Amino acid sequence: AAKPLGQITLPVTFGTLSNYRTEFIKFKVADFESSYHAILGRPALAKFMAIPHYPYLLLKIPGPNRVLSLRGDLKRAFDCDVQAVQIVAKA
Predict the structure, then answer these.
(1) What tens digit of pLDDT does each residue of 7-66 get?
(2) What is the Cα–Cα distance from 64 to 40, expressed in whole angstroms?
């Protein structure tokens, strides 16, 4: 468990130069070791009007020109997690 140190509002952008969406998202700042740098919760997904498809690791967000489809990569996420654990173990 960790208590938030404070909060910060940052612009978050998804998409490409020709089709993107930016929203200002409020993040809580906590002081704990984690492989995650930021977690987008339900309020952020609601602000983007995002539809998550968890079994497919897919997030769909309406954009100005067409739907933005953001795909996850389970192997890459696992590799990043392993690397973060190794970095913490060396410290």
Answers:
(1) 999 999 999 999 999 999 999 888 877 666 677 889 999 999 999 998 898 999 999 999
(2) 21
**Is residue 15 within 8 Å of 21, Cβ to Cβ?**
yes
Q: 10: Cβ–Cβ under 8 A, 6 or more apart, which residues?
A: 24, 25, 27
CA 63 vs. chain centroid, Å, equals 17
What are the tokens at 64? 């100005």
* CA 83 remoteness from chain centre: 18
Predicted structure pTM score: 0.73
Whether 31 and 5 have beta carbons less than 8 Å apart is answered as yes
- The Cα–Cα gap between 28 and 61 comes to 23
Tokens encoding 25: 């998202």
